[in-house]
Structure formats: C-alpha cells, structure tokens
C-alpha cells in the first residue's frame, strides 16, 4: 500500500469520525428532552448511590465530621486490622454465614416445590385460594412479622408454647435462647416468602409447550415422570439465576428482621455483620470503623457473586452476565 | 391441558398427594393469620392462657377502642399516609420518565445510563457512607429523609422500561414524531395515557414499600412527631420484651416502655391488623397486578 492511499484512508477516517461526531451531536440535540426525563433519576443515583460509594474511602481514614469525606486523614488498613483482630470477628462471620446458608438450604427449594405442586392442581377456585393465601404474608411488614413471632413464641402466653405444654413438654423460651434464633429466623422467613417466591417459577412453567406433555402421555409417562423430565428441566435456568442472586447476597442478610428479633439474650447467635455495622456506626458513631466492616462484607459479597456466576456459566451455560 | 382421560391409578394417587400438600401449605399460612384476627377481638385472658386457638372467645372490642384512642398510633398513621403518598409520587416522577427514556432505541447513551443505574444493584456505599450523605444534606429528622433516599429502585425502572419496550407500538411514536410532536408532547399526550397499567403496578410496589418501611425511619428519624406507624408498632410489639433490660435507659424511656407494655398486652394483635389493614383491603383486588409486575421483572430486560 502506497503512502498516498494510507493518507487518503486516514483522512477518510477522520472525515468519518467528524461525521460520526456530528451525527452523535445531532442525535443528542434531537432528543434533548429525553435527557430531562432521565435527569431526576440520574441525580438520585449520583447523590444517594455514587456519592456514598465515593464516601467508602472513610474506611481507610479517621473520619472527622467537620473535615468530611475528603479532608479526613488517611490511616491505611487500621480499621480492618482492628476488626480482624477483634474477639467477635469469628462469631460475626459464623453467624452471618450460618444464617445465610441455613436460609438458602431451607428457603430455596420450597418455592420450587410449591410451584410444581400448584402447577399440578387444576385451575379453579381451590388453586386460586391457595395462591392468594400463600402470597399474602409477603405484604406484611417486618415489624408486624417480628411482633407475631414474639407473640406466638412467648414462653408464657404464646400459642406455640401452649401447644408444646399440651403435649406434655416443657415450654421453650425461643427468643432468649441463642440455640433457637437461626431456626426462628429462617422458618418465619419461609412462612412469609415461599408463596411469593413461586410466582417466577409458575411463570416459567406456564411456558412449557403442552405438546411435550401430550407426547409424554402417549409414551406412557406418569404425572410424576412428566414433572421429573419435563417440568423440572424447564425450571433449571430460572433456578440457576435465582441461586446466583441468592448466593451473591449471602452476606447481605435481611437484617431488618434480625435487628427486630435481636435481644441481649440471643445476641450470641443473632449478631451478624450488618447489625454490628448498625450498632458500631450509627449507635456508637464509630463511622470509619463501621464503614470498614461494611466494606469487608461487601467485598466478600462481590467475590461470591462473581465466583458463583463463573461456576454457573461453566457448568450450566446460564449466568447473570 | 386436560389429561384426565389418560390418568392411571398412580396418577390419581399422585394427584391426591398434591392436593394434600397444597392443603397443608394453605393451613400453615392461613392459621396464624386467622389466629391474629381472632385474638384481636377475644378476651386477652383466654388468648394468653391458650384457650383461644382458632375462633374468637368472649368477643370484646376493648383492644380496638384503646388503639383508636391512642395518640401515637394516630400520629404514626397520619405520618405513614404522608410518607406513602409523597414518597410514591416522587418514585413515579423519577421512575416513569427515566424508564421511558431508556426504552427508546434512539436515545443516545441509553446503554451508559442503564449501566450506571444497574451497577448500584451490586455495589453500594453501604449503610454508613449513605447515612453520612443524608446527614450532610441536612435531611435527618425531616420528612425528606423518608422519601428521597429511596426515590427510585433500579429493579422498578427495569420493569417499567420492559413495559414501554414491549407494549407501546413503535409506529405510534414514529407517527407522532412525523406529525411534529416533541418528546414532551409525545410523552404526556400519547405515552402516559397508555401507561396506566405500569403506573398502577409501580405505585403499588413503591406504595407498599413505603407503608411497610421502618428502616429509614429507624436510622434517620428520632423526632417522635415524625415517627411512621411502623416505628410506633416497633415500640409496642417488639421493644416491650426487652424492657427487662431497661437499667441503661433513662427514666423517661423506661416509663414509656413500661406503660407501652401494659398497653401492648391488650392491643398487641389489634395493632397488627390495623396497621396492615390498607394493604389487606387492596391486596385481593390488586394481587394480579402485583403478580404481573413480578413476571415482567422476571423477563430478561
């Protein structure tokens, strides 16, 4: 290629680039009103999400309110070291992971099972009733749920302990016994969210081609076999996506409910990283230390999410990205 | 699909098993709900001794009388109505236009904006930096602390965007543009009137969130006059059990909690009903919209 054509090509490219720039500008100008549509959301995400992200740097500083995010002095990994060396570090980690894993093992399969069962029921009043009723607890506030748990499980006045006593056992003080905390937390969560969790699976099941079932019936497949070989495989992609999301959130427990159910007597098994951050940061005003603990939590979360996504992509060809 | 014709004996047995399981699920979920309703109108002595187990015994409305006579519950109710109304309005104002803009293929930068919104689902500043920003903005102990930090949810923007992309015919937009309508005119005159379903779904999602939310109030509100219902409930339903540890509390709080404890014994179940009432009333009518919203969200956006 001669020098001349290279130059010619180059100038052509340059012309293309300027053309592109012009058309880009034109595109933006043509639709300038759309940028006004996006502006409130943009401002919101910048102010309440990106500025706090920028503020994470206080985890590496000694935050002084009058100096702000920027002015405070850098102290390196001091707060992280303090956290890792503290006597409660392993307890917090153990509780956080313990509750999450427990919740995942019990809470993840149940909506799938319920959805498969609902899918087998004939469309009609009964099915609709079961759905309406099982969705309902999703709309009850965590405060009311916690109130219900405390009222039902009370050792002296709660209905559950009355039943336990009726059957001839000793009443159990569920809320003040650390042994029971995780179970109470997980099972109440199951009660509240299993029904709601079925929606996505039911949607996936409604997409199964009826011809597949008809063909299977002709081949003599039983109802159970059709569930095993047609319905469950249909659900796998949905399951994988939800599993990744759940695993990626394993450190981000719904700590609103934990905070409400926590009391000094069950602290031993109810203190998780999130409630600790709340305690240290907002109640004791140790901003930098709490931010460091929060960041540690978030980093583990992000690592888990990426790792699980990678594994899912390799093994099942389904992934978040 | 009707396959009753081909059912074998084991299939029938299996179907029977399915209905048994569904009935168990139904009872497990329904029982506590019925119990609360019955307990709220029963004589507390029967409830606390375990003699009331399903249907109300010795019906009394004393609990409800006390609830409706309680100032902090009324005040909380009022504030919750304010937060829900204002909050939902702001949510819609932010979500719907943004989602519409992102749904337009000719919107230059939609990929970029989508990316920076979605990124916040996976990375956040965390509790402390967020709190500090809200504080530095001077929002602590104001109504705005209850509505601005949650002005939009990424997930809802995605759901609304999918709605716009899948239900508004592209031809309509083109026709309006050819007729010389500006984007504003197009949005307000044509898009919005067609968007009632998604506006309803979004209003419901956000509205229920505001109604049931307590965490923002817990961290940003310490002025009792601004307490939403859920914080008042927390004092009645949750904190009462911890009053035995009141040694560290000031006399004032301890006394408050003590009087709340007396009150709580009687009104415990009633407040659960009263606070959930608006949601309970609208829920059966709106359930299908909620479900639809979740299903749109489950599509790949």
UniProtKB/TrEMBL annotation, chain A:
Residues that span the membrane, as ranges: 32-51, 99-118, 139-164, 184-208, 229-255, 287-308
This protein's UniProt keywords: Cell membrane, Membrane, Transmembrane, Transmembrane helix, Transport
Domain ABC transmembrane type-1: 93-308
One Pfam entry name: BPD_transp_1
Organism per entry: Gracilibacillus salitolerans
Record-stated family: Belongs to the binding-protein-dependent transport system permease family.
A cellular component annotation (GO) from this entry: plasma membrane
Membrane topology note: Multi-pass membrane protein
The protein's name: ABC transporter permease subunit
Cell compartment(s), UniProt: Cell membrane
GO biological process, one term: transmembrane transport
Principal cellular location given in the protein's record: membrane
Organism superkingdom: Bacteria
UniProt entry tagged with the keyword Transport: yes
KW Nucleotide-binding (keyword) present: no
From TrEMBL, chain B:
Main location: membrane
Residue ranges of every copy of the ABC transmembrane type-1 domain listed in the record: 77-290
Keywords: Cell membrane, Membrane, Transmembrane, Transmembrane helix, Transport
Top-level division of the source organism's lineage: Bacteria
Ranges annotated as spanning the membrane: 16-37, 77-100, 112-131, 143-164, 186-208, 266-286
Subcellular location: Cell membrane
Alphabetical GO biological process terms: transmembrane transport
Membrane disposition: Multi-pass membrane protein
GO cellular component entries: plasma membrane
Pfam families in UniProt: BPD_transp_1
PROSITE patterns: ABC_TM1
CDD domains (alphabetical): TM_PBP2
InterPro entries per the UniProt record, alphabetical: MetI-like, MetI-like_sf
Similarity-based family: Belongs to the binding-protein-dependent transport system permease family.
Name by which UniProt lists this protein: ABC transporter permease subunit
Organism for this UniProt entry: Gracilibacillus salitolerans
